[in-house]
Amino acid sequence: MTLEQEIAKRRTFGIISHPDAGKTTLTEKLLLFGGAIQKAGAVKSSKIKDHARSDWMEIEKQRGISVATSVMGFNYNDIKINLLDTPGHQDFAEDTYRTLTAVDSVIMVVDCVKGVEMQTEKLMEVCRMRNTPVLCFINKLDREGRDPFDLLDEIEAKLKIKVHPLSWPISMGKTFKGVYSLYEKSLKLFTPSKTTVEEGIEISNINDPSLDRYVGESYAAQLRADVELLNGVYPELNVQDYLEGKVAPVFFGSAVNNFGVKELLDTFIRLAPPPLNRETTLRVIKPDEQKFTGFIFKIHANMDPKHRNRIAFLRVCSGRFERGNNYLHVRQEKSIRFSNATAFMAQDRETVDEAWPGDIVGLFDTGNLKIGDTLTEGEKLFYTGIPSFSPEIFKEVINKDALKTKQLEKGLLQLMEEGVAQLFTYELGKKKVVGTVGALQFEVIQFRLKNEYGASCDFAPQNIYKACWISSTDEKKLAEFIASKQRHIAQDKDGKLVFMAESKAWLQMVQDNFPEINFHFTSEFKD
Ligand code: G4P
Fold first, then answer.
1. Cα-to-centroid distance, 12 and ligand 1 (Å)
2. H or E segment at 101?
3. Domains and CATH numbers, the chain
């Protein structure tokens, strides 16, 4: 197969949702379609259950199995699908965000009872930054949920993306009859079932009297009225708008009943983009360029504390990756050879000799690689679009064992490189502040520092609202600003300057007082 053919058959995506909306269930059904797993429950068993949410040890346990579920590759209708897991627990870490930088599109799962929830909003913000195409699956139609029109409005309002329904539910909950595909003009009747997939009934004309027979007169009348309204509001899907992340096609279904999942998958492989062009510091790289390039978006470290082994997850962006070849590690300006490379097929890992754009390869690493690193065949460029985002919770690191200072520093550095959290070092007094997205992360850090590095620390809460990366085209003004706010200036892991704002109102005031300074909520920005 040529490089172009390999690219055309790949779809690399992630599923995003708020915990409990049905991401695991949907993942499992997709894997069943791909023949990647044989029975239901295979994915489920590796998931943190509800009751364990507050139990951070479970997160540790999860780390052990999550290598296997981090990337799930499978084939469906001659398409190679790479599904990247975005950890779904409430206290998700920075690397959930990062995973989204390695996908070409996402499927968003929304619970029809709960509507759009907080975590989906946050993840969607990341998608919007990169104009990632989004397909939406409204799940749990077998439950009494919210009015579908209201759900669409809510998605548009909260997620700031236009929607375009491609299917429409006929009632829901106990009286759920099925969905009408607006795209294929066919009806699919709901029968609660965990395994079977039924063919749709073609109803090309919504006024066809057989519709009344299938769903009953009143539901048929309601559907006709809904469809008339929908046809007026949503004339025809503009696929380009979807590909540019402006419109999200919407499907309705019930993952646990395997209802509407096949339609979603079939449409997904037709609409979702193959690996796309990607920006670097030098130029835009096309996936079909002959020379290999890729970047690291995730590091999984210290599964065995006795051996400092790490798996770095490489997203191939262009050309062909070959195991055993020498590649340029651009940041370190050195040649590096990976004789140990793994592909992820469903829940198995196997050694790969080659990989193509869109594929994810696991590289065994002894500490050379960091999140965001670029590998090439010699060109000195860096992939962009893998920023750090401002954390939400900040705490100062207090060393509890002076004799283990070195271990603490090393451990902190390595955990930060792995993307567990972010470290900010203050200019003044070298105070170290860790920032995370979720509160449990602090306990995880404490535990891992002790367990893997023998270091002990406490965390002291800090009154910080956001970390803002600062820049200015006026060097003098920037220096003045830093001098006047010295107590609140820190450096991130790459030495970039960050202003630690104490509150929203205060940040606003500072912004007003220093109009020449630009404040950014992510570490990557263009002035
Ligand atoms: P998550 O990964 O997004 O956190 O969600 P997950 O798939 O684990 O689903 C959360 C719960 O919602 C599960 O129930 C699951 O069975 C249920 N669920 C998923 N899809 C549907 C659906 O279409 N309809 C209904 N009614 N429920 C659905 P659980 O009780 O937490 O787990 P389990 O005991 O069923 O395994």
1. 24
2. none
3. 3-271 (3.40.50.300), 278-376 (3.40.50.300), 393-520 (3.30.70.3280)
Q: In terms of C-beta density within 10 A (0-12 exposed, 13-18 middle, 19 or more buried), how is residue 130 classed?
A: middle
Using CB atoms within 10 A of its CB, is residue 22 exposed (0-12), middle (13-18) or buried (19+)?
Answer: buried
At 386-395, the pLDDT tens digits run: 778 888 899 9
Give, rounded to a whole angstrom, the gap between the first and last alpha carbons of the chain.
43
User: From ligand 1's centre to the CA of 230, what distance in Å?
Assistant: 29
Ligand 1 center–CA 448 separation, angstroms = 31
- Measured in Å, residue 254 CA sits from the centre of ligand 1 at 10
Protein residue whose Cα sits closest to atom 17 of ligand 1: 22
C-alpha–C-alpha distance, residues 101 and 268, integer Å: 19
What the block records as the tokens of 27 is 């993942």
pTM of the entire predicted model = 0.86
Distance from chain centroid for Cα 41: 23
Helices 440-453 + 405-417 axis angle, to 10: 120
27 Cα nearest atom in ligand 1: 7
Residue closest by Cα to atom 35 of ligand 1: 256
Contact residues of ligand 1, CB 6 A cut-off: 17, 19-25, 44, 50, 88, 139-140, 142-143, 254-257
pLDDT in tens, 202-252: 777 888 888 898 889 999 999 999 999 999 999 889 999 999 999 999 999
* pLDDT tens string 308-324: 678 899 999 999 999 99
